[in-house]
Amino acid sequence: MEAEFVPPGIDPTKAHPSRRYNYWLGGKDNFAVDRESAEVVASAFPTVGLAARENRAFLGRAVRVLAGEAGIRQFLDIGTGLPSAGAVHEIAQTIEPSSRVVYVDNDPIVLAHARALLTGGPAGRTAYISADLREPEKILADPVLRRTLDMARPVALMLVAVMHFIGDDEDPYGIVERLVEALPPGSHVVITNATGDHLTPEQYEESVAANARSGVPFRLRGRDEFARFFTGLELLPPGITSVVDWRPDLPPERRPPVEDVSMFCGVARVP
Predict the structure, then answer these.
(1) Phi and psi at residue 22, in whole multiples of 5°?
(2) Homologous superfamily of the 54-199+222-269 domain (CATH)
(3) How many of the other CB atoms lie within 10 Å of CB of 232?
(4) Which of 43, 123, 210, 239 is a good FRET partner for 203, with 20 to 30 A between their CA atoms?
C-alpha cells in the first residue's frame, strides 16, 4: 500500500492491529509501519503468522457451530479486521441465509473495505459500525446495530483476537460484562486472547518486551485471567482450550503445537 493512496483519517506512521493482522495472514492492506511492527513481534515469537491463521480457523469453526447446532441467526463481531475469506457472514449465511451480522472496527481502512467487500446475501443483512471496543455503550446504542439486530433475540458476540489489545487499565472485564449484559438468554460469547502460558519464562519475557517495542499495546493473559471473561456464562465443550484444540477438523498429529500458537479460546452460552 503506497503512502500517496492513504485514505483520509489514516495515520500511516502508526501501526494498527487490524493491518498488522492482515500482514500476518498474507494480505497486502498494510503500511510499512504495520509490517515493521509485525516483524518486531515475530522476532520474539516467530510463529505469530501461524497463530493468526489458527485463530482465523477457530473463528470459522465457532461460527459454524453457532449458526448450526446452536441456531444463532445474529452476530456482533467487534474488532472485525480487514476482510478475508471465511468472514462471519459468509459462513453464517451459508448455513442460514437469513443470518444478520454487524461488524465493528475502529480502523477507517477496515470500514472502507468492509462496505465494498463484505456484502451479505439477499435473505440476510450485513452492517458496519465505526467504533472502539473501549466504548461498549456507544456500540450498543448505535442505530445501525439496532436496525440490523433484534437485541431481544439471541446474538453471538464475537471478540476474536481483540481483547489482548485492551490493557488492564482499560477495564477489560468491565467491557465484556457490559456487552454481555445487553445480550438476552440463549446468546453466545466467543473470545480469544494470546497467552504466555505455553512459553518458557525466557520466551515470555522476550515476547512482552517485543510487544512493548512494536508500538501496539498487547496483553498476554494466563488461563485464570482469560477464564474470568466467562464469569457467569456456560462454557460449551471443550471449555477453555487452545484455538488449535477447540472442536478441531484435524487429528492431533496434523495440528500445530499449542506452543506455536499460544492462543486461548472459549465459547459460552448466556444463561
Answers:
(1) -60, -40
(2) Vaccinia Virus protein VP39 (3.40.50.150)
(3) 10
(4) 239
pLDDT at 177: 98
Distance CA 124, CA 197 (A): 40
Domain boundaries, the chain: 54-199+222-269
119 Rama class: left (phi>0) / alpha (psi -120 to 50) / beta? beta
pLDDT score for 252? 95
pLDDT, tens digit, 9 for 90 and up, residues 192-213? 999 999 999 999 999 999 999 9
Residue whose C-alpha cell reads 471496543 in the numeric block: 133
| Rounded Cα gap, residues 127 and 142, in angstroms | 11
Extract the C-alpha cell encoding 33.
Answer: 509501519
Give pLDDT < 50 ranges for the chain.
1-4
Calculate the average pLDDT of the chain: 92
Cell of 238: 471443550
